[in-house]
Amino acid sequence: MKKKIWLRGLVGVGVLASLSLLVACGGPTKKTATSTLNVTMGLSDEEWKVMNQDVLPAFEKESGIKVNAIQMEAADVEKKLQASVAAKRNDIDVISQDVNTTAQLVADGYMEDLSDQTKIIPSSTYPIQKQVGVFNGKTYFLPYRPNVEINYYNKTKFDKYGLQPPTNWDELLTVAKTLKAKEGIGRVAFKMSGDVIELVEFIRSAGGDPLNLNDAGTVTALTYLQKLMPYLSADTLKGTFSTTNTFLAKDEVYYMPNWPFATNIIVGDGGRKDILATSGFAGPKEQVKTLGGEVLGVVKGTKNKAAALKFIKYLETKQVQQLLLKKNGWPSFRADVTGTVTGWQAPYYQATDAALKIAQPLPNVTYMPDVNKLINDIFQETCVQGKDVKTVLQDYQPKLAKIKAEAKKAQ
Amino acid sequence: MTTRKLHFGRIILITVISTLMVMPVYLLFKISISSPSEVLTQHPTFLIHHFDFSHWRDVFQSGNIWAPLEKSLIVATGTMALATVIVAPASYAISRLSRKVRFGYIAALFFTKMFPTVGIALPIAITFTRWGLVDSDFGLVMAHLIEEIPFMAWILLSTFSAIPKALEEAALVDGANRMQALRYVVFPVAAQGIAVAAMYVWLNSWNEFTFALYLSLTTKTLPLEVYYYVQRGGFFETAAYSTLLAVPVILITFVLQRYLKSEYLSGAVK
User: Do the Cβ atoms of A14 and B89 come within 8 Å?
Assistant: First the structure.
């Protein structure tokens, strides 16, 4: 009997404690009303200030729709959508997504087909920008903010060794060789740790096609990279968009491309005014940069589609685009939005503007994530392990053909 | 002479280990209050020569600190409290079972720890999303308990197993009932182990990242805020936020270290 009372007491204490905690912690936060839009964006503190103070309040006032703008990196958006789609309970309405990560979202079926909403796209949009969200003839994303990497260099070190930022592949090799000879270790780096953006630039600059991977251009690019590799910094194999800032600011590397947000971190916060930027260098065929930036999409199954489209339309207006150019230094996708950035940021903006003129998006195919893996593997085998370029490319052809065939079957 | 040498060697060893452990925190703090020119160089100085508190001012003025700090505190404390309430009695009961059954329980508990968090995070996130637990403190506490309950049970099983049964029996002979024996004899003796386990649970929950990433939308915990600054912010803001993340850990450890006395049980049974 005593034992039973003791057990009941113990269970009672446990239940009471659990309930009190449940009450203290609270359930889910306040549910969003139908007139509230959840929008994800990946912005820096400075960019959030502009968004929260200048862009969103005007829309909320004008439309009566509340916008819940949520900080989320592109890679995390996919995870969230995976969970919410599988749970059939979607909390995100609009995503402002990195243009080079959209293929997977489309392939997974997370995005609303906006083909009947293309009238939202302003007529003054640059032709290439109209195409960035189109997959298999259907429009899933609408243009918003084009972006492109610029090539940062350490002017102090370049001046010290009598170097100029490279304008072609020969000069790049000379710069890399000189810096390695002078300092004993490689001081030129690229981001080749899984990100294919710069690898694709090399392939395209030599006239290659990243969806073919067995043409003369790809062979030329990989052969050149094999030659360049011994003179590059070891950071090439671990560089990401965030670590690149540290490499440049701490003088670990003297030449490395990155997205323009790095300017505020390295030069603005870090005070490294001797780190300048150019639009990059040309390959044997032409100069090509990979188009980046963000596009806007509506998540499939949202109950707020009309409000979502209204918000997208607002972000695409000339007035908002002009504001984002002026305050954030974001180049616009609209040809009628002009202006320039003044002050210390001006040369970096000019480099970005010049790079955007020669930028091309990664191929708009839903199987691009699989091709990215192949490109990375090919790079590892040829440039890191030093295998013969033509043999490796030949070996990868059946894999590429299989990926394409499976994608065709899935359509 | 040999004893003195041994003592001296021990002090040196402790000093080296302590220095290695404190160094990362010092470097974080140092970067957060140094001027850029002192940090952004190939050979940064070890000591601080030019103090610059503007990074901390920016962090506090940004308005991004208090909500994540509050959420992290609520979730870590909630996880710790709930885990203790559930696990302490359960572990005591398991510890009094036969050796074979006890082993079965331990094996079952550790079965859940065999899978990496990142592997189970998605299915858990799907279930919790279906239950409307995204963005709620309670949802995150529940998610953290999945990881922490087996861990705490493992620690407390050893603690309760080490308490001689004779101690309870003596209390029962003296007229105490089972509940009183547990409350006045077993739990006080086990307080050291419970405190250590609770501290570990609090620290694990405080630092947890994967579940927080999946189960947060409009609100963030402090590790998510640090992650944001690592991705998007400057070097100094990242260092300031990381220091903030480390400070409560140091304080909690400092406060609870009094329970980490050895030979706590000595003399309990006469």
Answer: yes
Is A28–B126 a contact, with Cβ atoms under 8 angstroms apart? Answer: no
The verdict on pTM exceeding 0.90 is no
Residue A228 in contact with residue A382, Cβ under 8 Å?
A: no
Chain A residues within an 8 Å CB radius of B233: 44-45, 265
Q: Is B98 on the interface with A (CB under 8 A)?
A: no
What is the pLDDT averaged over residues B47-64? Answer: 84
Q: Would the CB atoms of A269 and B235 count as touching at under 8 Å?
A: yes
State the Cα angle at B93 between B89 and B95, rounded to 5°. Answer: 115
Per the model's pLDDT, the better-predicted residue between A23 and A401 turns out to be: A401
A vs B: CB pairs below 8 A: 140
3.40.50.300, 2.60.40.10, 1.10.3720.10, 3.40.50.2000: which CATH number matches B57-259? 1.10.3720.10
Q: Among B78, B130, B231, whose Cβ lies nearest the Cβ of A21? A: B78
- Interatomic CA distance for residues A223 and A141, integer angstroms: 36
CATH of the domain at A166: 3.40.190.10
Beta bridge partners of A289: A359
DSSP-derived letter for residue A361 is P
Find out whether B185 and B168 touch, Cβ atoms under 8 Å.
yes
* Torsion sign over Cα A71, A275, A243, B63: negative
CB contact under 8 A, B81 and A21: yes
Task: Given the cut 0.95, state whether the ipTM is greater than it.
Answer: no
